[in-house]
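Milestone M4 deliverable, item 7.
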Amino acid sequence: TSLQVKAYGTNWQTSSVSYSSINYNYAQVNRTGFEMSADGTKAYNIRWETGVCYQYTLSTPWNISTASSTSNSTLSGGTYRNELFLKDDGTSMYVTTEDNRVRQFNLSTPWDITTQSTSGTKLVSAQESDLRGVCFSTDGSKMYIIGRAQDTIFQYTCSTPWSASSASYDSVSVATSATGNLSLTRSIDGTKFYIV
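Output delivered:
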């Protein structure tokens, strides 16, 4: 499995995207999800069937051709992990699993997955029966999910910011124009969504 990088030239606009020739073999088989730290010096992905999360260090920030594997940690709970999202300060990680749960892990050392511990789950099968992607608003007050069954973004309010287990459905949703959605993320300023 290889990761190909595209660079956004103008304010997170997909119309300004340009392809980079960088092609880094960041995983062997059955890896899902991809996240990077806020400063671009670390990258993460998950082995789908084992729940092992892999952490990489980039000697040149944002350049995955300089990545080297540094550590890994097995995430508890659920079967078959699909996607991950990291809190902007690196203290929490959220993983979607095949049982339609968002699982939260706290990192006692920011951005270091070897310090992860379980911190609650949220079942979302009432809205999406084939859960894939998850992300949060910039202030952690909202959680958003997407999946392949509904091809819709669903919005939740977190009574405790950044706490997946405190999320309740807002009865707010937006259908996407694509089918088979696998991933969801947002721009740094929270003004745009991106789906795959």
